[in-house]
Design brief:
The complex is a heterodimer of chains A (276) and B (267). Chain A has 276 residues and is an all-alpha fold. Chain A has a single domain, classed as Orthogonal Bundle (MetI-like fold), CATH 1.10.3720.10. Chain A has 12 helices and no strands. Chain A starts with a helix and ends with a helix. Chain B has a domain of 154 residues: Orthogonal Bundle (MetI-like fold). In chain B, strands 1-2 form a two-stranded antiparallel ribbon. In chain B, strand 1 and strand 2 form a beta hairpin. In chain B, helix 1 packs across helix 12. The longest helix of chain B has 35 residues. The chains are: A mainly alpha (276), B mainly alpha (267). Chains A and B meet through helix 1, helix 3, helix 4, helix 5 and helix 6 of A and helix 1, helix 3, helix 4, helix 5 and helix 6 of B.
Chain lengths: 276, 267
């Protein structure tokens, strides 16, 4: 038996079938249902979306929470990766810790943050004891941002460690030999070379934050006004059910994420192509 | 020249922030799980094993753990079977199929778990629920979420092996691809395959959105149970978190060990 190109496609068939059945079929069916409702004009969810600013707010909240946590994670994680590239002996331990942090999301993270910063939280009480009120509502937007940073920053460190390491070896010493200081090196050499990786990692971090459901849900229940929670609450909620609107929000989320991922990857490819 | 020791305070500061963000939440849960109470002062009071011991003897927890381990293992196994076949074959002979698989491994980022869960809930439970077994639906629906992990782990292992010369050598010597696959490639890839299976298993076991939305009441999984227990007894919920992360860390070390061993063996 010899593997032909065609055999490779046959080998991929079961996987494609699983993905089509589990992901594409339900998504396409729900989207088609929503479009059909709107064409018939009977119960178009677009009307509900337009008439209630609450849902547009969820889109905005998701966008800024994801964007802000991604930018902060790229900055902090990238800088931490530089420190790790300098100190190979710290790498292993840091990777273990960052891995723990990146995976400590959802219910466990909500539990931890409530323990630390909740109404009865240890740190809140401790600070209040010495006369400093904590200006952070853990169930509000500040709390959500803090929670997202707890897993986004370690994840960014993990994902940027390798690209930064490859950049560091040799290049920086060469720049130093030629008399370029760190600031000049990063502005003219380091950041431009790292930009494609930053774009790719950034798009995945953005998607990771926008997709987060367990963390906002466990932290503040269905009152967390982000897209992931609204999409679920509009179908599984007992009080207010509107599957059409949920489909519309899912479609919006897909378009937002597909645009970010495809755009960032295309840009990264172009930048790489220019350098090569 | 730049001094290696006095280098940039900002990168050190960033690393310190990473460590605090990564360590503080797990540490808080750990302390809470092993203390009698922690609401009167900055430090927890009286160390105890009681919460953890209680947990092990609670039938509801036992059932959820068993259920979660079984279903997530089935999902991981399904991913390994269909995913590894696809990735290995594509990597060997077809760059175009590989490009499609790369795109498929980005799909769960664009269509997130919560959207998949709600779609499956409406179609497979709402419409076809009478004919479909809920456990089977869960196993199949979770698999595409795990594929990116497998694709990445296996892809990296195969890049490291540098399979093209192997394939050429086999052809020159008159061996068929099937023979090469069975006698050379699969044994070489075995550690990577086991590592990706474990990685997929752990990820599936810690999944919340689909477990909570699709399965809901009758089939209770670990993560939703953790969330439910939070409101009843926070200490016990914390003990459950500690227990699961102990298992995850052990599995993670196993994966890392396998990968390191594989790298050494193949280099």
């Amino acid at each position: 038996m010899n593997l032909s190109r065609r055999a490779a496609w046959f080998a991929a068939l079961p996987l494609m079938l699983v993905v089509a059945l589990a992901v594409l079929l339900p998504f396409a069916w729900r989207s088609a249902d929503f479009v059909a409702d709107c064409i018939r004009g009977s119960e178009c969810a677009l009307r509900d979306f337009a008439s209630d600013a609450y849902y547009f707010k969820a889109v905005l909240n998701t966008a800024w929470l994801s964007a802000l946590s991604t930018l902060a994670a790229l900055a902090i994680g990238g800088a931490a990766a530089v420190a790790l590239a300098e100190r190979p002996s710290w790498r292993r331990a840091s990777a273990v810790l960052a891995n723990l942090g990146a995976n400590f999301a959802g219910v466990p993270l909500a539990l931890a943050l409530t323990l630390l910063f909740g109404v009865q939280g240890v740190l809140r009480q401790g600070l209040a004891g010495i006369g400093i009120p904590l200006p952070l509502d853990i169930e509000g937007r500040g709390g959500l941002l803090l929670a997202y940073l707890c897993f986004q920053v370690p994840l960014a460190t993990l994902m940027l460690a390798l690209p930064v390491q490859m950049l560091e070896s040799g290049l920086m010493d060469a720049a130093a030999t030629l008399g370029a200081g760190p600031a000049l090196f990063w502005r003219r050499v380091g950041l431009p070379l790292l930009l494609p990786s930053l774009l790719e990692v950034g798009s995945l971090l953005f998607a990771n934050a926008a997709a987060a459901y367990a963390t906002p849900f466990a932290l503040s229940g269905t009152s967390a006004n982000v897209l992931a929670v609204r999409i679920a609450a509009l179908v599984s909620g007992d009080i207010f059910s509107n599957p059409g609107l949920s489909s519309l929000l899912a479609l919006l989320m897909f378009m937002l994420l597909a645009a970010v991922i495809a755009g960032a990857n295309a840009l990264a490819r172009r930048l790489r192509g220019r350098d090569a | 020249m730049r001094s290696r020791t006095g280098a940039w305070w900002w990168s050190r500061l960033a690393l310190a922030i990473v460590v605090v963000l990564a360590v503080l939440p797990p540490l808080a849960v750990l302390l809470y799980a092993f203390s009698t109470r922690w609401d009167r002062s900055l430090l927890p009071e009286q160390a105890t094993w009681a919460w953890l011991a209680d947990l092990v003897h609670t039938p509801r927890v036992q059932a959820a753990v068993a259920q979660t381990l079984a279903l997530s293992f089935a999902s991981a196994l399904l991913t390994l079977l269909v995913g590894a076949t696809a990735t290995i074959a594509a990597r060997l002979v077809s760059p175009r199929a590989m490009a499609l698989l790369d795109a498929l491994s980005l799909l769960p980022y664009a269509i997130p778990p919560v959207v998949i869960a709600i779609g499956a809930l409406q179609l497979f439970v709402g419409r076809w629920g009478a004919w479909l077994d809920l456990r089977l639906v869960y196993v199949v629906v979770v698999a595409p979420l795990l594929f990116p992990l497998l694709h990445k782990t296996l892809g990296a292992a195969m890049r490291q092996l540098d399979v093209a010369p192997l394939l050429e050598a086999a052809h020159t010597l008159g061996a068929s691809d099937g023979f090469l696959l069975r006698r050379v490639l699969l044994p070489l890839l075995a550690p990577a395959l086991v590592a990706s299976l474990l990685l997929c298993w752990v990820t599936a076991a810690m999944e919340f959105a689909i477990a909570n939305l699709l399965l809901g009441g009758p089939i209770e999984m670990l993560q939703p149970l953790m969330n439910g227990m939070r409101n009843v007894n926070g200490h016990q919920s914390a003990a459950l978190v500690v227990l699961s992360f102990a298992v995850i860390t052990a599995m993670g070390m196993l994966v890392e060990g396998l990968t390191a061993w594989n790298t050494r063996r193949n280099s």
